[in-house]
Amino acid sequence: MAQLKGNYLPSLDQLMALTKGRVPKNTPANTEKWDKIMNQWRNDVHYNYSLESQDKDIIELEVTQFLCGVTPKRSGYYSRASLKNALSAISRHLQNVKPGWRYNLHNKIDFPDLHARFDSLLKDMKKKGIGEMKSTDGLSTDEIRSIINYEALNPNTPLGLLKRVFFWICILGAPRAIAQGKWYNDKQLADRTIHSMFKNICIECEIDIKGRNISNHSGRKTSIIELFDLGVAENTGMAITGHCSFGKFQLGP
């Protein structure tokens, strides 16, 4: 909102714009995603009415049932982190669409049964090793050399140069969220393309990634592995990667 000289009364539209501006870009998309997943689950269990049409006690029960009973389409289990995200998304959804709803599902006082059961679920999952998020895998030095020398990353072509720059930023910069930037070839690349670019570069360069969790974050993991192999002091490595604790630096998140 542009600054004006002198006092003035902001319009409601200006205030709303400020409110929307503080919401991270991914938050509405994440809310919509979990709303769709929840509605599919409700349809599968024959809850043929909307969650927001129910009172507080029923909402607490059915959200608990959802968190304990939802599974991915591809079978298996959602990770504990995903289920926590689901709870946050459902809470936002209710605040957005249910008239007069001023509750936060994260409030343990207002929703004691939900939190007692959800906490037990998460602890049980951890104990049994269910829904564990697989750590991102890095690349070896030889694999990095192979990719850099591959024709797909030829800097003399526009697309090759883009891939080469992207790859080097992932490796050398150890960024946490490179996919949040804007990348262009002949036009702006879609978010989906950016999110899978590191993995697709590896596949295109014939790197064997079978059984490995390769993503854009693999560049960050690779840089940490290289720092360890080079004998770089932990405090120096942490300054490079931006980690705030030795434990997290060693795990390479």
TrEMBL record:
Q: Look up keyword Nucleotide-binding and say if it applies.
A: no
> What PANTHER family does the entry give?
DUF3504 DOMAIN-CONTAINING PROTEIN (PTHR21446), POTASSIUM CHANNEL TETRAMERIZATION DOMAIN CONTAINING 1 (PTHR21446:SF12)
* Keyword set includes Ion transport: no
UniProt keyword annotations, A-Z: DNA recombination
List the Gene Ontology MF annotations in alphabetical order: DNA binding
Which species does this protein come from?
A: Rhizophagus irregularis
Q: What is this protein called?
A: Uncharacterized protein
The record, for InterPro entries, names: DNA_brk_join_enz, Integrase-like_cat_sf, MAVS
GO BP terms: namely: DNA integration; DNA recombination
